[in-house]
Design brief:
Layout (H helix, E strand, L loop, with lengths): L1 H20 L30 H10 L7 E14 L4 E7 L8 E9 L15 E6 L1 E4 L2 E4 L4 E5 L2 E2 L16 H10 L6 E7 L4 E3 L4 E7 L8 E6 L18 E6 L1 E4 L2 E4 L4 E6 L28 E2 L2 E2 L13 E4 L8 E4 L7 E4 L3 E3 L2 E11 L5 E9 L10 E2 L3 E4 L5 E9 L3 E9 L7 E10 L2
Parallel strand pairs: 3-6, 3-7, 12-15
Antiparallel strand pairs: 1-2, 1-4, 2-3, 4-7, 5-6, 7-8, 9-11, 9-13, 10-11, 11-12, 13-16, 14-15, 17-18, 19-20, 20-29, 21-28, 22-28, 23-27, 23-29, 24-25, 24-26, 24-28
Length: about 450
């Protein structure tokens, strides 16, 4: 009987407990957005981004940190911009002060592009960033891989491709315009003339080369690590030649300030034998001395003499146009430097075995005098300059007299080279070069 009474008593207590729970308020609020108890002013979307305060609270809640979110704020400090990696380390807050800041770690520039200049962002800029946010060693930050989606009211909009097809490819000029407007999200077709000697990567069976609309080195698009038709590997650098017209398919983008078709691109078609670069239509570079043009430095584009810029490191000097000419209207001024040798370099050329002669005229640009040394450098299949080969130094140049400089050299086998004129660091003064000719001995 006593056990029965105790059992009834226990059941009564249990019933009272469950009944009372129905009348007690929930000890927490319903989760919102990131799953925390915090109510956010934004939704973290492109149309309704979080504030910086929202972002900090979101990180503190620790829920949903694997999601990509949008955060608006004002840049409160710019700590560093790395042009080597194209990213920046800076901070944002809601009012542009150091209060309630959020670190932006290794963020990319507007439109998910790499920074080309430290001046692309500044304190006080209004931004909307997109990426993942989280905590690292106690600090709240945008994690690596974020980028600026809106900068001072301008919103990034990727280019949609609806005017491009295999039968209607972009020309190079159009491709560059598309890159500048915002790279497309899908691969595109581009057609152009090969303007530099391809370099071969034997490991991947790929070729890297440049194309332009007229076959010259003006307004080029780099075709980086491209494959042959149907993504088949190339077998050598000779599979494509300067002067051939190609159509290629791949993703175009900006890479360190230069337009490029990214790796994994492949060839759609190729026409022409590449024996000429269309010198009659403005010059260009090519295989053999017949392609050598603009030795008189009369043709300029983008403040550089056409063809006098290598894609390798052979060209290291600062160049400018001068009206103090040996012949014609212009010569090229090759700036000197007392700390290092500087070089005027011609675009890479593939030459057959034989003996070649370069001749040009030089003089000092100022009363300080000057020196030059003629030469060349072999260029490897991966576009790296080898050991420089120079002729005799020509010293004691004066600003009053043009001096003829001649240098001959012999290649034992087919070689890709850059012709160079070195302005040595001693004395490291500015010099003028004009009327450059390049011939092969019969």
């Amino acid at each position: 009987m006593k056990k029965f009474i105790y059992s009834l008593f226990a059941l009564a207590i249990t019933a009272m407990t469950f009944t009372s729970c129905e009348d007690v308020p929930m000890p927490y609020s319903e989760p919102t957005n990131g799953g925390s108890t915090t109510t956010y002013t934004g939704q973290g979307t492109v149309d309704d981004p979080y504030t910086v305060a929202d972002a900090n609270n979101y990180i503190k809640a620790g829920v949903g940190l694997d999601q990509t979110v949008y955060v608006k704020g004002k840049i409160s400090s710019v700590d560093s911009v790395s042009l080597n990696y194209g990213n920046a380390y800076y901070k944002i807050s809601d009012d542009g002060t150091s209060t309630g800041q959020l670190i932006v770690y290794r963020g990319y520039a507007f439109g998910n592009q790499k920074f080309k200049s430290a001046n692309e962002i500044k304190v006080g800029d209004d931004v909307v960033l997109v990426g993942k946010i989280g905590a690292f060693k106690g600090t709240y930050e945008f994690m690596q891989g974020n980028y600026i989606n809106t900068l001072n009211g301008k919103t990034y909009t990727p280019t949609t491709v609806n005017d491009n097809s295999i039968d209607k490819p972009y020309n190079v000029a159009k491709a560059i315009d598309v890159i500048n407007a915002g790279p497309p999200t899908v691969p595109v077709y581009v057609k152009g003339i090969i303007s530099t000697a391809p370099t071969f990567n034997s490991k991947y069976g790929s070729l890297t080369y440049y194309i332009s609309d007229d076959g010259t080195t003006t307004s080029q698009l780099q075709i980086y690590s491209g494959l042959n038709k149907d993504s088949v590997q190339f077998t050598s650098a000779n599979d494509l030649k300067i002067g051939q017209t190609v159509e290629v398919y791949g993703v175009i983008k900006d890479f360190n300030g230069k337009p490029e078709m990214d790796k994994n691109n492949f060839l759609i078609s190729v026409t022409g034998d590449g024996t000429s670069t269309g010198g009659e239509t403005g010059g260009g570079t090519g295989t053999g001395v017949s392609a050598f043009t603009n030795g008189d430095f009369e043709t300029w584009a983008d403040n550089l003499p056409t063809n006098w810029k290598s894609t390798s490191t052979a060209s290291s000097a600062t160049l400018s146009q001068s009206t103090d000419a040996h012949g014609g209207k212009y010569s090229v001024l090759v700036a000197g430097n007392t700390s290092s040798n500087k070089r005027l370099g011609y675009t890479e050329m593939k030459l057959s075995a034989g003996t070649y002669t370069m001749k040009f005229y030089a003089k000092a640009a100022t009363a300080d005098g000057g020196s030059v040394a003629p030469g060349y450098v072999p260029i490897s299949s991966d576009n790296k300059a080898g050991s420089y080969v120079y002729g005799s130094y020509v010293n004691n140049l004066t600003p009053s007299t043009w001096v003829e400089v001649t240098y001959s050299f012999t290649l034992d086998a087919e070689t890709t080279i850059c012709l160079v004129v070195m302005n040595p660091k001693s004395p490291g003064k500015d010099v003028l070069i004009d009327d450059f000719t390049f011939t092969q001995s019969k």
